[in-house]
């Protein structure tokens, strides 16, 4: 397949603006949901354990179907699959707001995840096809900015809409922006290039999806059921069986869903380790910090939310700068700096002795600004690295697996950090200090892994391999 690098700089940035609306909308679909859970519990008279599936089913389906969405983009065209997905997402958002029963709400949220699953791999592939290597990092920086901004805006926007208009309006609030996005991509994003048709590897896609679904469920449900409970052990056994089936099927496939050679690329594996460590720490801290502030220090929920805000906020501020830095320095140096800064922030937090429960607001803010700055320096450059590692013909499925890894590691982070908090015999304050130690270890592993990432894409005078 031929590379599509748009020659007019203005056209490239118009294309980016159009597709990043989809990033913003997709992230908003997740970030505004948590605040709506109490209202959903009250309207449908369901317990918290059931209501949380409104959040879980969307994230679960989105994560496990991203590789399939990316593969469909590789087969049928990234722009075409993006538009299909966004149309389904829009219809599902309307259905969520109009759902007459709790079961129909869960079904609509599942459709929402199916619809948005192809868009992120398509966005990554369109950026790789559209921007030359010397500008691709900057484009990735704006993607990270759109993602972080939606994470930050979702909860307050949802709270305002729920208080004044109800949760149904909050769930449908993204529909006008979805319609704008569909029109913008239709008119402004260049048509897909002709591509070689190849058969769809249904067996490989099903095996990978089953493996990812089993892993996500095993991570989330084992914490509730108990790690040695028969149901948990059965879930882990099923996951391992599905994973083994995936390897066997792909080795025998004439045209595999995923080239297993991809996982033998040290640079791709290193990128997966780095993004997994970053998201593991991010999601873990976003769970543990409010619990520590409320349960240990006795702060209000509103104040706890404000004290945690510097972490995602600084990530969104740093993201565009990180992209430019990656263009100039390369992913390796930028990600090494980023994860080293995360490590430094963990040391700053640890030095304040959180186990004593006396962590000050200004000390916490300083530590979170350092940690968030390091994460912001890492997210878009490590994503940039993937676009320079894999062939364009596999860009969709490779970036889909990469981002699936982000979500799986985030789920693992919330599970591990929550378990440490709840099981620490010396109390929750000591548990939080152990959480910070885990951040320190994960960041150290990531620093080592960054040394295997590629350098400047432009320095090699290359585009993504074709």
Verbal overview:
- This protein has 466 residues and is mainly α.
- Helix 4 (53-76) packs parallel to helix 6, helix 13 (266-296) packs antiparallel against helix 19 and helix 15 (310-329) packs antiparallel against helix 16.
- It has 3 domains: 1-190, Growth Hormone, Chain: A, CATH 1.20.1250.20; 199-254; 264-466, Growth Hormone, Chain: A, CATH 1.20.1250.20.
- It contains 19 helices and no strands.
- Residues 1-7 and 459-466 have low confidence and may be disordered.
- It has helices at 9-31, 37-44, 48-51, 53-76, 78-98, 102-116, 119-130, 133-164, 167-172, 175-188, 202-225, 230-252, 266-296, 301-308, 310-329, 331-351, 361-387, 395-423, 428-450.
- The termini are close together.
The rounded Rg comes to 21 Å
CATH fold title of the largest domain = Growth Hormone, Chain: A
Tally of contiguous helical segments? 19
Distance between the termini: 7 Å
N-to-C series of helices and strands? HHHHHHHHHHHHHHHHHHH
Name of the CATH first level of the largest domain: Mainly Alpha
Sum up the overall morphology in one term: globular
Summed up, the domain count is: 3
| CATH architectural grouping of the largest domain | Up-down Bundle
Tell me the structural class.
mainly alpha
Instruction: State the CATH superfamily name of the largest domain.
Output: MFS general substrate transporter like domains
What's the average pLDDT? 83
Strand content: under 5%
Low-confidence stretches: 1-7, 459-466
Count the E strands.
Answer: 0
Largest sheet: none
Instruction: Determine the fraction of residues in helical runs and give it as a percent range.
Output: over 70%
């Amino acid at each position: 397949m031929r590379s599509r690098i748009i020659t007019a700089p203005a056209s490239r940035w118009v294309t980016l603006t159009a597709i990043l609306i989809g990033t913003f909308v997709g992230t908003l679909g997740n970030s505004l949901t948590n605040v709506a859970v109490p209202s959903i519990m009250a309207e449908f008279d369901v317990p918290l354990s059931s209501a949380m599936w409104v959040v879980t089913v969307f994230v679960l389906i989105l994560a496990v179907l991203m590789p399939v969405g990316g593969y469909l983009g590789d087969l049928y065209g990234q722009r075409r699959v993006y538009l299909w997905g966004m149309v389904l997402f829009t219809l599902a958002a309307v259905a969520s707001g109009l759902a007459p029963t709790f079961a129909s709400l869960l079904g609509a949220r599942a459709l929402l995840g199916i619809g948005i699953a192809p868009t992120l791999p398509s966005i990554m592939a369109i950026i790789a096809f559209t921007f030359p290597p010397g500008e691709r990092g900057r484009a990735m920086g704006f993607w990270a900015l759109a993602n972080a901004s939606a994470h930050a805006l979702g909860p307050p926007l949802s709270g305002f809409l729920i208080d004044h208009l109800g949760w149904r309006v909050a769930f449908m609030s993204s529909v006008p922006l979805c319609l704008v996005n569909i029109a913008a991509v239709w008119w402004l994003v260049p048509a897909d290039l002709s591509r070689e048709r190849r058969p769809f590897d249904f067996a490989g896609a099903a095996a990978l999806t089953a493996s990812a679904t089993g892993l996500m469920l095993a991570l989330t449900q084992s914490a509730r059921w108990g790690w040695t409970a028969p149901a948990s052990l059965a879930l882990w056994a099923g996951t391992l069986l599905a994973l083994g089936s995936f390897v066997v099927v792909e080795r025998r496939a004439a045209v595999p869903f995923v080239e297993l050679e991809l996982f033998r690329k040290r640079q791709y594996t290193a990128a997966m380790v780095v993004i997994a460590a970053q998201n593991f720490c991010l999601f873990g801290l976003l769970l543990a910090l409010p619990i520590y502030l409320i349960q240990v220090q006795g702060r209000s929920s509103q104040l706890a939310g404000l004290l945690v805000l510097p972490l995602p906020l600084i990530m969104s501020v740093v993201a565009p700068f990180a992209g430019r830095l990656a263009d100039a320095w390369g992913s390796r140096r930028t990600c090494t700096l980023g994860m080293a800064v995360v490590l430094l922030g963990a040391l700053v937090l640890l030095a304040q002795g959180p186990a004593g429960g006396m962590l000050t607001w200004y000390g916490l803010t300083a530590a979170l600004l350092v940690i968030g700055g390091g994460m912001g320096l890492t997210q878009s450059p490590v994503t940039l690295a993937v676009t320079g590692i894999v062939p364009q013909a596999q860009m969709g499925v490779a970036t889909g697996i990469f981002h699936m890894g982000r979500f799986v590691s985030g789920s693992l982070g919330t599970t591990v950090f929550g378990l440490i908090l709840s099981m620490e015999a010396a109390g929750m304050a000591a548990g939080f200090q152990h959480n910070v130690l885990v951040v320190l270890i994960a960041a150290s592993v990531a620093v080592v892994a960054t040394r295997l990432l590629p350098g400047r894409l432009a320095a090699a005078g290359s585009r993504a391999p074709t």
